[in-house]
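Example record

One chain of 621 residues, shown exactly as stored in the release files.
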Amino acid sequence: MAGNQNVNASEEQARELVEQSRQADWEGKGFLKNLFLGDFRMDWIDPFPNKGVSAEYLEFEKKLEDFLKNKVDSVKIDATGEYGDDVIDGFRKLGAFGMKISKEYGGLGFTNVEYCRALELVGRYDGNVTALLSAHQSIGIPSPLKYFGTDDQKKKYLTRCAAGAVSAFALTEPDVGSDPARLGTQVTKDENGDYIITGEKLWCSNGTIAELFVVMARDPNTNKISAFIVESDPNNGVEIAYRCRFMGLRALQNGVIKFHGTKVPKENIIGKEGAGLKIALTTLNTGRLSIPAACVGASKMMVEECRKWSADRVQWGQAIGKHEVITHKLIDMAAMTYGMESLSYLATELSEVKGYDIRLEASAAKEWCTTRGWTIIDEAMQIKGGRGYETEASLKGRGEHAVGIERAMRDSRINRIFEGSSEIMHLMMARECVDKHLQVAGAMLDKKATIGKILAALPSIAAFYIPWYAGLWIRGLFTPFRYGQYGRLAGHVRFVETRARKLAREVFHGMAIYQAKMERKQAFMFRAVDIAMELTVMAASVARANGALKAGAAEGKAAVDLADVFCKNGRRYVDTKFAEFWDNDDDAKYAAGKALLDGKFTFLEPKDVTGAANSSAAAAK
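Predicted structure tokens for this chain:
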């Protein structure tokens, strides 16, 4: 019988598992990694990387857009909650399920840059389709096998995936979201060394139509979590138990998958036993880049629609776009979209560069672009008003231009949740932010450290921090004389450098003050992450716009204008976050929040006419 064994892991055990699963060593340089230490390396992203795309990809892109325009009925997909066989078969014929799979195994062999450009295009049209293609290739069978699969696994399964066998990733469980230490799906071995999987997975995207799964399961004897290739075979104990339905992405083939003693051949383990979470995290470093790409596509569509509407719609004697508040919204949306595009393109391009560790840039692209993408859709809804809130079918029914802003809003909200929620992305980046500090001064931050251990570490701590901290001030003496090659954007580059050094100092100050309590200061570290992301997007936007200007690109001057607006907004945002480091209500709000959990404010919750606590509150009590 399927059913997960309850695992009650302590906070310490959960943290230890994640530490063991993360990449301990950096595989190369990283712009954001150095930025956190106050080392601003503009030369690592300027010239802005631009590998370009192949003629073969451009031909595919034309076919893909034609298919999206003429064969994908997004209104119907949303209304029925089904893709339709014609849509899925159409993608198979295009080869869209094999974009990331090499030609050796029957795929199109596109680079990650090309793949993400394709997802950007799809993101302009339909979130449901984006999820179908992304879940299959970014976290399904193709990605983990590309990096960790054996030759035999690749020949057997990548060929099937390229031909259109849909795959899915099964990690989440009813009691397991972002905490894998509680994973309850179990794997044991039979007398032949094959594996037996028993358990239940929740919210498995593509799961209800998948032929193949990547399944994470725990060995109850060793507690090690491993990854397996599992065929969706009801005769082998695989049950599609339930299809989930959601606010948006209404055609998403997402559900509850149960494994009733499912036998898995021993050759179907991916990588080594116990490497499951490391495989998942490594795969996601590049896999999650498809989400920001799709967000860029959707945001471009919103900007275009709002620009046209604001130019044509007349209220109070002039086009609404000429009213200052709407004008501000429009230019902020455009500048934000340029920033999203710059960060997404930068992270994707860097994912192709040998000797570059992409983990922080990928996390930043996912978090920053999904958050700003939501803001842009929300502003588009506000600008279009009732026409934004009205469905496409209703608009068309009364003869108006039909654009699915309300559908895009419903579909896009999940972007800040799946493949790493905003909070988890912040925690991951915060952990990497202090990685060097943990290496150097870990004893000062370890609540278990003895006085002897701390004293023994002091010489090495001083040897690192004295010259490092002094350098954060000394290097600032030369900043006013640098970056003149960026013209009117030079001031923004100087701002990024000075604030990068300030960020490094503030994080150091926080660690010195809070020491072992630093791990509890999430609000403090989240501000540091927000600042670092904003500075990165500013630098990327400047490098890209300045490069376009110098190359004589048609959009060069306009790109500089957008980068300038974005950076002006970014400067205000960054300095506000800096002020909040030490002028905040974090402790008071935390105390009040704990009181809320203890029931102090239940008087605010619904009560029935007799005055008794209502429904959910009563049930919880």
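Notes: The chain has four domains: 55-166, 168-283, 289-419, 434-584.
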